[in-house]
From TrEMBL:
Cofactor: FAD
Any one annotated GO CC term: cytoplasm
Record protein name field: Acyl-CoA dehydrogenase
Annotated GO MF terms: acyl-CoA dehydrogenase activity; flavin adenine dinucleotide binding
Annotated GO biological process: fatty acid beta-oxidation using acyl-CoA dehydrogenase
Keywords: FAD, Flavoprotein, Oxidoreductase
Domain Acyl-CoA dehydrogenase/oxidase C-terminal: 248-395
Acyl-CoA oxidase/dehydrogenase middle domain boundaries: 141-235
Similarity field: Belongs to the acyl-CoA dehydrogenase family.
């Protein structure tokens, strides 16, 4: 029995599977075409106890840790959901942790309270944003990426100039997950000259004068996860909406990259596992030239290779996640875990669609959605190339 496979986490899997079967599968195709999931799904997930997994009860969460969050993500996809659904429903997983950590609360295997702040300011953010979001009544997003840059966080050019009890924010963000629906956006801004790397995190509410949510971005995949461009023109944000001390934003972002990357790695290997299941079922049921596809050695060996890569990726991601959960500094290993899982996913989804033949190319095929959704996993949270650079540095190169 591994740490991820305990009686309690088996019950969590059963709860997640029941939620997906009842609340997701009858509607997922419609949400894909609508371009978003309904707000009511957040409330339903909260009442079920899933939305707050990984967040302490002291801030309105359901308790548990990083490993419990991984179990939920894995089971959503294995039960017929998608990585796009995970991105849409659990965006708070990247929007809230900085607030929780700044308030000094232990979260997901890492100690908060290191960002130069604490009560009462950060506790106020817990009450105004964290609790309602974990109750499913608010939706949060994280805004870091800008039109002129992606993985180079230190080069952020959106500025925040202090003016009394407010900051005046100017700039723009893009590729913001849940940006269309978000009630607030945890936003990385530069509190020195643009590109200086002196970053601060501010919570900016929808409806604040000068804050504009731009067009809905059309994407290759993750169709049920809305994505937006954001614009800030002389937006006045109260100092009370600052997360932690000024100029601690870069550290805060870096501290939480590990959990974001492991979440994406989990989506990757879980997608691979689901596609192995779909392809195996198809090859058993589909007959050509009077014989099931699975009766052919070539097909069996391809399925065996797919299964091996998916299971190996799962085992490695679990191993790294267990080390992160107890506080080990495994930056290099997290990067390797993400790349291993993404590579396994890329191979498996391509092979699975090929085995499905023409049917796999249709929107009616679940494997078609996974094929499209998988492509972002090697880009989001740090590209494969950035992960390789981290790995190279860990090797002393």
């Amino acid at each position: 029995m591994s740490i991820v496979d305990t009686p309690e986490r088996r019950q969590l899997r059963e709860l997640t599977r029941a939620f997906v079967t009842r609340e997701v599968l009858p509607h997922l195709d419609d949400w894909e075409r609508a371009g978003e999931v309904p707000r009511s799904l957040h409330e339903t997930a909260a009442k079920t106890g899933l939305l707050g997994i990984g967040f302490p009860e002291s801030v309105g969460g359901s308790g548990g840790d990083l490993l419990d969050s991984i179990v939920v993500t894995e089971e959503i996809i294995r039960s017929g959901g998608s990585s796009g659904l995970v991105a849409a429903l659990f965006t708070h997983g990247i929007a809230l942790p900085h607030m929780v950590a700044a308030a000094g609360t232990r979260l997901g295997g890492s100690l908060g309270g290191r960002l130069g702040a604490g009560p009462p300011l950060d506790q106020d953010l817990i009450d105004r944003y964290v609790r309602p979001t974990l109750a499913g009544t608010m939706i949060g997003a994280l805004a870091i990426t800008e039109p002129g840059g992606g993985s180079d966080v230190a080069s952020i050019r959106t500025t925040a100039r202090r003016d009394g009890d407010h900051y005046v924010v100017n700039g723009s963000k893009t590729y913001i997950t849940s940006g269309i629906r978000a009630d607030f956006v945890t936003t990385a801004v530069c509190t020195d000259f643009p590109g200086s790397g002196e970053l601060t995190l501010l919570v900016i509410e929808r409806g604040t004068p000068g804050f504009t949510v731009g067009r809905r971005l059309e994407k290759l995949g993750w169709h049920c996860s809305d994505t937006a461009e954001l614009s800030f023109v002389d937006v006045r944000v109260p100092v009370a909406n600052r997360i932690g001390a000024e100029s601690t934003g870069f550290l805060a972002i870096m501290q939480h990259f590990a959990t974001e990357r492991l979440s994406l790695a989990t989506s990757a290997y879980a997608t691979a596992q689901r596609c192995v299941e779909l392809a195996t079922r198809w090859c058993r049921d589909r007959s050509t030239f009077g014989r099931p596809l699975a009766s052919r050695q070539l097909i069996r060996h391809r399925l065996a290779e797919m299964h091996t890569r998916a299971e190996a990726a799962r085992a490695y991601v679990h191993d790294v996640a267990e080390r992160v959960a107890v506080g080990e500094p495994v930056v290099t290993e997290v990067a390797m875990a993400k790349n291993v899982a993404v590579a396994a996913c890329d191979f498996v989804v391509d092979a699975a669609l090929q085995l499905h033949g023409g049917f796999g190319y249709l929107r009616d095929a679940e494997v078609e959605r996974h094929y499209r959704d998988a492509r972002i996993l090697g880009i989001g949270g740090g590209t494969t190339e950035i992960m390789n650079e981290i790995i190279a540095k860990g090797m002393g190169l």
